[in-house]
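Technical note accompanying the year-one report. For the benefit of new consortium partners, we illustrate the data format agreed upon in the data management plan: each record pairs a sequence with a structure-token string. No post-processing was applied to the example shown here.
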Amino acid sequence: MKPKISDDLSRRIFLRGAMGVSLFATSGCEKIEDFFGMEPQEGPVVPPSGEGVDLVSHVLNRLTFGPDPSEYARVKGLGVDDESAVAFFLEEQLSPNEIEDKRTQRAVRRLEAIHAPLGELYEYKEDHLLEELTRATLIRATRSKRQLFEVMVHFWSDHFNIDISKKECRWLKVADDREVVRKHAMGNFSALLKASALSPAMLWYLDGRENRKSGESEKPNENYARELLELHTLGVGGGYTQKDVMEVARCLSGWTVRGKDRFFKGKVEFHADAHDDGAKVVLGNEIASGGGKKDLDDILEIVGMHPSTARFLGRKLCIRFISDDPSETSIKKVAGTFLSSNGNIKETLRAVFATQEFLQGPRAQKRQRLFQFIVSALRGVRARVSSEMDVVDYLIRMGHAPFQYPTPDGYPDIASPWTGTLLWRWHFAIALARNEVSENIKVEEEVLIEKAGGVDGLAASLLGRNPSVEEKAAIERSGEPLALLMASPGFQWK
């Protein structure tokens, strides 16, 4: 039986001391069976060797759900130096359709329900749909080579959050994930915004389907209109008023969704008799009467490319990829690119990654959210997983179950709301290293150490840098290097 992690001072010093440095980078991978029945990634295991997190490790930590064991060496080999290697990797990840990813696609293809046409989704039990959608999300995040694309899918899933537990969202979110978020994640924001506005799941979740023109005893439903302005485009303080919310609601009236007990279930329809066809004024822009369904396009054009929207999205992207408190310089640069590129998401991301703050700023600014922590741990230690739901169960218990955030703003992307999860993270790290998470999740610690060239190599792989003298001593005394490393701030902060 393995000795337990010591509770002595050295352990606490290790856990505290690593907070000032960055995260993990990579670990080794060879002939171990891949996640979810796929073939393993091949490639040499070359841990980082510097005292601090280098540029390659930094980029891998920010643009992926944690480096695959062979990714560090692969990316280092893409250029003559770190700068050119990173530039090549960035362009590679910005063109996901050109990245061969058949292994992941095969693994997801076996999940039949998530590929069903819209109307057929109602033929499945809601729990089965949620299970398959969550499993697919975990598989893609864990094993896809299109890592930046998957990161952006998660970003937009939170931005346009839909709680799958609300009524018919239980069936319709599957189509939203496929036809809205994944289809437009790296495309154009205006197209993404419109797809979301006309998503049957969104129309259900934010009550757009109930939005009808005012009568003598009723008013338009303002729920979606308010969140469209506050969460999807302009943001709080973006310059809109309650009057604008009311006018937007009028513009969006008349759109509805066929229910599960009707023909063409889930189909989005426009009912002209339920639409307020009078003249409106939104953010100082006049919308003439008689526009009908075109009012929706007019509204989305006004708010989608508004300067406040550019700033709001620019700041959110900087928070995701740079730090919880990005500089005004970075935000302005990203917002400017968003506007000049007409909402091109790839160009906007290029602007994020070209900021001096991203390239040269501190590299220990982001605490992993729970989903990323778990996925990065699985990726980094080459865990063999024969049951995805065992991983999902942990996500549920730890409070980061995909598609189940109860409010429209989505899971938070800054560190403070996740502070109370530290004990859960330690429990998972220790259980994973000891093969106690589940009988269906296995880690071969001795193989990891051998492939990394020893315990110090393993530490460098997971931390993204050489361990300090104090960390080496704590690891040696603990008797459980893998558990201690994954539980450390050096692994959890990137």
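Partners are asked to follow this layout when depositing records. The beta strands are 255-257, 268-270, 280-282, 285-287, 384-385, 441-442.
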